[in-house]
Design brief:
It is a single chain. The protein has two domains: 97 residues, MS2 Viral Coat Protein (2-Layer Sandwich), CATH 3.30.380; 33 residues. A six-stranded antiparallel β-sheet has the order 1-2-3-4-5-6, with no helix packed on it. The chain is globular and about 60 Å long. The protein contains two helices and six strands. The protein is an alpha+beta fold. The mean pLDDT is 91.
Length: 136
């Protein structure tokens, strides 16, 4: 079972690192592990208005597969220049689920997971998500 740790990823500029601190590990099935961006400009925002990532896992009904769920939230928060208070206007969200059948050999499962994650990280996938439209 992987241990929670800080996740460091590149920002959109492809150069700058951004860190998501591991705040809470999963306590078991259906209990999420939780990360939050607590560094840089995010540190000035209230905790609930910072970008976050949650992962959780559980069996499907007949216990023939594990479900791995990923939720990411990137709030859009602005600071009122008069009161200096932050207000959340909206958020970008991702909610994805991997279904991992237990009967698939480990090597094949490993390859599938890596390829799916790499496809999600592909520039064309990012461009589609940014545009809000599938490629034509």
């Amino acid at each position: 079972m992987p241990a929670i740790a800080t996740l460091t990823v590149k920002k959109a500029d492809g150069t700058t690192d951004i860190a998501f601190s591991g705040l809470s590990g999963s306590a078991g099935d259906n209990s999420p592990a939780y990360w939050r961006q607590d560094t840089g400009a995010a540190a000035a925002k209230p905790n609930g208005m910072r970008s976050s990532l949650q992962t959780s896992a559980a069996w499907n009904g007949p216990k023939t597969a594990r479900r791995f769920m990923v939720k990411a939230t990137f709030p859009y928060a602005v600071q009122d220049s008069t009161t200096t208070l932050y207000q959340s206007k909206d958020a970008v969200r991702f909610d994805g689920v991997f279904v991992l059948p237990v009967g698939i050999p480990g090597g094949d499962l490993n390859e599938a997971v890596h390829q799916i994650c790499n496809l999600i990280a592909h520039q064309l996938t990012k461009d589609q998500a940014y545009a809000g439209y599938a490629a034509t």
